[in-house]
Design a protein that fits this description.
This protein is mainly β. It contains 5 helices and 26 strands. It has helices at residues 2-9, 11-17, 57-60, 138-143, 294-305; strands spanning 29-33, 39-41, 45-49, 64-75, 84-90, 93-101, 104-108, 113-116, 121-125, 130-136, 145-155, 166-170, 176-179, 185-191, 193-194, 197-198, 207-214, 219-223, 229-236, 239-241, 244-246, 251-254, 260-265, 269-276, 284-286, 289-291. A hairpin with a 2-residue loop joins strand 20 (239-241) and strand 21 (244-246). It binds manganese (II) ion.
Length: 313
């Protein structure tokens, strides 16, 4: 099915896939998905959950479990009220929050916490379990304004699902920066590596996470191992990918065919690229718990009820 789709839509690339020049083989596109309808998470996050609309997402996007995109939205000032989500648990994976506009605050039962503002990233490893709250930072809420962010969930391999929780607060200045030639734009490397520049995030499996801005007519090339699941979310502008066009708010899932991705911005564009080595283990999810077996889900629920996820201070 992939091959047929690929042949129909990108015949030139098919030729390269079968040639010996494996490094030059273009990645085929599995699908381009328009934004699903928005829903509220608590009263602070107005998001589109892209993976729910994608067939076999758990397999085709592993190790990524969820991507909630909060497109730019203007919040009124909120005095005396904290917008967000109250205390809730997580176990078995990591939550990665990228702030583009506005500021998100978090604090958890491990005593970690902080505020991430525009350009910053919070990489929270729930692993054996945490309780946390996520909300609009008080200083932002007092004045209100535009708010735009992503929350990505990254699965953990079985060997690390019950490891000690961790927290990486990554400020914008720590993020790797690759300025593209010909005034094409900028690649910010949050995790993984791009053209020799490494991202600061420590990950348990191979993950590349890039925040990319291209100027109109700017070009950028990426290459990821064929078996690594790869996608991008267009947050602004239109992108040419081979003979296809991805428009603002589209999510592009690449097939596991070829390696190279050549992009050209048709307008000023802003997008995130995610790629990761799949974790080939069973996934059993119940809300905020992502484990391998049903028994482990029951354990998570009973541990949570028994207060083993700690306390919010
Ligand atoms: Mn959470």
């Amino acid at each position: 099915m992939h091959t047929l789709l690929f042949t129909m839509e990108n015949p030139s690339a098919t030729t390269e896939v079968h040639s010996n020049r494996r490094d030059d083989a273009m990645r085929a596109i599995e699908g381009i998905y328009p934004p699903p309808s928005l829903h509220w998470v608590g009263d602070g996050f107005r998001v589109a959950g892209y993976f729910s609309a994608i067939p076999s997402a758990a397999k085709k996007l592993s190790p990524f479990l969820m991507l909630d995109y909060h497109p730019a939205y203007e919040y009124p000032k909120a005095e005396g009220h904290r917008r967000g989500v109250g205390p809730h648990p997580h176990r078995g994976f990591e939550t990665v929050t990228i702030a583009f506009q506005g500021s998100v605050a978090h604090h958890d039962s491990m005593g970690n916490g902080g505020v991430i503002g525009p350009g910053d990233v919070q990489w929270m490893t729930a692993a054996s379990g945490i309780l946390h709250q996520e909300y609009h930072d008080d200083a932002f809420a007092r004045v209100g304004g535009p708010f735009q962010m992503i929350q990505l969930w990254v699965n953990l391999p079985k060997a690390h699902k019950m490891s000690t929780p961790g927290y990486q607060g990554i400020v914008s200045a720590e993020i790797g920066r690759v300025t593209l030639a010909d005034n094409a734009g900028l690649v910010r490397v949050i995790a993984g590596e791009y053209l020799g520049t490494k991202g600061p995030a420590k990950t348990f499996t191979k993950v590349n996470l890039f925040d990319v801005q291209l100027n109109a007519r700017g070009k950028a090339d990426f290459a990821f191992a064929t078996q690594d699941n790869t996608a991008l979310l267009v947050m602004k502008g239109d992108l040419r990918i081979g003979d296809r066009t991805a428009r603002e708010n589209d999510f592009v899932l690449f097939a596991n065919v070829g390696e190279r991705i050549a992009l050209e911005a048709l307008t000023d564009a802003h997008f995130v690229v995610l790629s990761g080595e799949p974790i080939d283990e069973p996934i059993m999810q119940y809300g905020p718990f992502v484990m391998n077996t049903e028994r482990e889900i029951h354990e998570a629920i009973s541990d949570f009820r028994a207060g083993k996820f700690g306390k919010m201070s």
